[in-house]
Design goal:
Order of helices and strands: HEEHEEH
Strand content: 5-15%
Helix content: 25-40%
Distance between the termini: 34 Å
Structural class: alpha+beta
Number of strands: 4
Shape: globular
Strand order of the largest sheet: 1-2-4-3
Number of helices: 3
Oligomer: single chain
Length: 110
Amino acid sequence: MQKLLNDPAASVRRQALDAYETFLKIENIPALFPLEKDMFASETSMYSPLSFIIRNQALKTIELLGGTVFQKIEGVEIVEGDPVYFWEWAPMYEWWNKRNSRWVFWKKNS
């Protein structure tokens, strides 16, 4: 299933994220990191601005796996002249790095 997170079809990537509970655990979070750059953009509702929905869905999946909620900082990229919105991943990386450095400390001292 993890291979489906990198499938060329956005619908397959979304379905894989929807089924994350069946194959991902907290230690698998790095498998979601490439989705930070996912370029699939869509409206979330009729006439809403474009969003990178797979990026946002992957970030939400990381929150669920990690049992946390990240500060939401809205980012925007211009794609073919249109603004496309997404949640920044920087707060997640800060959390991930702190979490892992803590585990490294305990592993070294045990």
